[in-house]
Hints:
The structure is a homodimer. By secondary structure, the first copy, chain A, is an alpha+beta fold. In chain A, 44% of the residues lie in helices and 19% in strands. Chain A folds into two domains: 66 residues, Winged helix-like DNA-binding domain superfamily/Winged helix DNA-binding domain (Arc Repressor Mutant, subunit A), CATH 1.10.10.10; 168 residues, GAF domain (Beta-Lactamase). In chain A, a hairpin with a 6-residue loop joins strand 2 and strand 3. Chains A and B meet through helix 1, helix 3, helix 4, helix 5 and strand 5 of A and helix 1, helix 3, helix 4, helix 5 and strand 5 of B. Chain B binds a DNA duplex through helix 3.
Amino acid sequence: MAIQTNEENYLSSVKNALRILRCFSMDEPEKKISDISASLGLNKSTVSRTMSTLASEGFVFKDPESKKYRLGLSILSLGGIVNSQMDIYRESQPVLNKIVQELGETAHISVLDNNEVIYLQKVECNHPVRFLTHVGRRNPLYCTSSGKVLLAHANEEVFNTVLQKGLEQHTKTTIIKPEKLKSHLRQIKEQGYSWSNEEYLEGVNSIASPIHDYKGRVIAALAIVGPKQRIQQSKIKGYSKRVISAANEISSRMGYWK
Amino acid sequence: MAIQTNEENYLSSVKNALRILRCFSMDEPEKKISDISASLGLNKSTVSRTMSTLASEGFVFKDPESKKYRLGLSILSLGGIVNSQMDIYRESQPVLNKIVQELGETAHISVLDNNEVIYLQKVECNHPVRFLTHVGRRNPLYCTSSGKVLLAHANEEVFNTVLQKGLEQHTKTTIIKPEKLKSHLRQIKEQGYSWSNEEYLEGVNSIASPIHDYKGRVIAALAIVGPKQRIQQSKIKGYSKRVISAANEISSRMGYWK
DNA sequence: CACAGTAATTGCTCTATATGCAACAAGGTG
DNA sequence: CACCTTGTTGCATATAGAGCAATTACTGTG
């Protein structure tokens, strides 16, 4: 039984379980039964029973210290499968390693999913400033370098959806005028790379370039991220060349003939 | 209703969903409804409806090409959260990068879970021979270098469980005699590293060393893996020193004072 | 181009089962 | 030691999930 019933013909208890899993986040990685119950509007006992089922399959576990639940290692296992299934993943690792070594900045690969960028893979540099992104993280399309590259090459529909959801002014430099964004994207498409000038997070710059598959479609983006002190305006030109060539290398490994 | 009913008071439809997710593997990353139905002994319609629920939350998706289901990006997102929650993950990345660069071999971090080794993190080398392990993969404890290190430092109970489940002869060199394994583990504990001499996979050698937390407990292992041609007996000594020092570095980052 | 043949989806029925409530147990805290 | 918060469990009920079978959607082949 349920009050939050059939929006579709989905299995409600399964849907509950999945919503429970998804309510864990980077900011709230551990939760109590009652937290979840409150935040999802589910009965405590429902959550309790769902959690024990999830725990029985290793999808969550109770941290013995904090006595709260955390996501379990079964998810990690599945995540590994997801990754290894993506061709880009396989092909990009050595290229990422190389560029990180050369430029000394963190690099990652991302794709477009559900009108957001999602980071598939990341190779960190050894600098202390890190952890701005993580594998699986989702960011907006219109104010990150990866996002803008992907958006620039996506179809009109995606662009419209993004506008519809609204452009939020994350920082002073975030582009929130649709016309301006449109022409900016056109430029990105022409020049073959994009850079984010603290458009999403203060003090964080990034440069991205598209990765093509064998059919020439843009399927992913390679980006480097770092503090604005290191990725300065004056260095954009040089860095972008390197980012483009790395992205091209992956593209050609993916069977793309320019 | 269900024939595969209440072994406990778990939610059966949720359990089904999780079993469905877990039936995807590295070897079988995409599946049809009927495959799953057959392999799990669930009714086709049950699987169908469960799958659409899973799809609605992004846990699976239908590959437009093959028309089969694959694990979805929601799982990747959750996987990222799992990782970032583990202190080891954070601390080990730069150390792994360094050792991979130096030795030119793939390195990874693993922990003990449910009487198996599970690989948390991996930095690949640029050699063509790769993909023997992947993040989230589970391997036996008694015949991998990481596994043996973890087993050597685990409590008696784990050891007994492993024996109970049986030691399988994966290769010619797999140690399957309990007494021999026991003394071998004791030696590993003394010398501070272990090496697997093709004990799990033909042609694959590895060297591992334990990582300690701030309380001195062994919580993980660092290992390098590679083909036997490169990780030869004669090099074990030198390599193991490097593996030990890298593992120690992570340990000290974790707050361990030797 | 139609016709097997396989696979997935959906309507329907019925009973098992997931849910909410409330009582209970288990810690934690003042 | 009593009080509060939090998680688990028994129970009754309504409901949602399972199975079956028919339908629809695809694939490939003669």
